[in-house]
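#lab-general

N.A. 3:47 PM
ok so I finally got the sequence cleaned up, no stray characters, all 317 residues accounted for. can someone with queue access submit it? mine expired

B.Y. 3:52 PM
send it over

N.A. 3:53 PM
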Amino acid sequence: MKKSIDELISLKKILVLDGALATELERAGKNINDSLWSTKILIEDSEAIKKVHLSYLEAGCDIILTSSYQTTIKGLMKRGYTKDEAIEIIKKSFRIANEAKEEYLLKNSVEVEPIIGASIGPYGAFLSDGSEYTGNYEVLDSEMRDFHYEKIKILKDEGVELFACETIPSFREALVIQKICEELEVEYYISFSAKDEYSISDGTSIRECAGNLNGKYLKGIGINCTAPEFLESLIREIKSVYNGNIVVYPNSGEIFDPVSKTWSGNGQCVFDLAENWIRAGANIIGGCCKTTPQDIKKLADSIKNKKIKNLLTSIAL
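B.Y. 4:20 PM
back already:
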């Protein structure tokens, strides 16, 4: 049975989001060191993308995200594709995710269908210079609007029902995206990248961001692509000014260098902290860079266990 995100939350209380896509492709031997990032694989070997989607569905995800984070008309045309070709590649990101979902549903009996969210990355991701982690890009609001509007409209017309506006480093950009989604009447959440326990990447406090985002179609505010140790504080800051869904999907704990595009340090099973995040107020939880289907399965299994169910009865979500 197909349900909206509101209906799914009402039914399950806690939703499981998927984990990393790009780093899973790397683990499978794909080279994504490219300005198009995982879009390169969407073009060259979309079956590899589908396999990752399927692995997360089989792990127990309620929501999977498309491979469209860095799939933009501007970015694709810069690489020599025509506008029509770029539009088809954007549409393909949703079609591949939907194919994975249909294959999963053919083989599995489920109470409710998983939701496909369209990944909408920040303007800085197109620049591919690390500014997506700082928000320090000099661009007019009107240029950001044009950049995001066309992609969101294309995916809406293709049938996308939820837009995951993620790794947003700038509050100014978040406001631009909110206006577009409200105008197009599409359900969406906005998830920021954070620099510490209290601030998003551009230095704006997460409390200020959450307190000033609102809209009929806004389905959540959150944090992703961020160190797991920052999350509990950030969730509490959001919760203090916002009564809606709180979305969190941290990195594994390793540190990414946006200039060299390399990882350092040791990862951890970040989902050992999920109980703390739920207690703080999060109710949509997944993983970002370097997290795996195995990590997400552990998360999904833990949410189903008696301890978490007892926790849910003791707190007001």
